[in-house]
């Protein structure tokens, strides 16, 4: 998506969502503890690392020896609701505003994951990562990591204004109705052809 459109969208949506962001931040602090924000290094365009910002969705629960419990045990009902609704990703508006991310593109992943993908990782990092993307509207958590990469690469080879518009519309649907596997989009991505 065009940088100017990214900025216009983020400023507009950011103002509208500011009360929601404040409420989510307060809820995270009350239900999960401080800090409300989670920051992690992710691979950006051309594999340049950046600090991605999200609302926390896990507690800092530890075992009797002080070691963090597994992610599954630290994810609360509230955390699952945050993730399903994608409200945990609202702070990424900042990443879009400063140019680390775009509204539409492959979701940012860890630098070591990108390195492990070889040439596929290089291609995946040829565009800015996005707040939402082709894999997120095609099944996201239902998909394997390999499926997500195939869908991301299909998007990179076929991206257009119309596909970006479809992603925006479908993202709203996913936020409201939940994730559903799109077998047709996955099959097209697995063919690895254009179109």
Notes on the protein architecture:
The chain has a domain at 1-102. The chain is globular and about 50 Å long. By secondary structure, it is mainly α. The chain contains 9 helices and 4 strands. The longest helix has 30 residues, at 3-32.
Layout of strands and helices, then pairs:
Elements: H1 3-32, E1 37-43, E2 49-55, H2 71-74, H3 77-85, H4 92-97, E3 102-104, H5 111-116, H6 119-124, E4 130-132, H7 145-158, H8 161-177, H9 183-191
Parallel strand pairs: 3-4
Antiparallel strand pairs: 1-2
Helix pairs in contact: 7-9
Task: List its salient traits.
195 residues; mainly alpha; two-stranded antiparallel ribbon; 4 strands
The amount of helix comes to: 40-55%
The secondary-structure element order is HEEHHHEHHEHHH
Can you tell me the overall shape?
A: globular
The whole-number mean of residue pLDDT values reads 90
Largest sheet: 2 strands, antiparallel
The first-to-last residue Cα distance is: 18 Å
Q: Based on helices, strands and strand pairing, what is the structural class?
A: mainly alpha
Count of β-strands? 4
Number of helices: 9
Radius of gyration: 17 Å
Strand order of the largest sheet: 1-2
Strand content: 5-15%
Low-confidence stretches: none
Can you describe this structure in just a few lines?
By secondary structure, this protein is mostly helical.
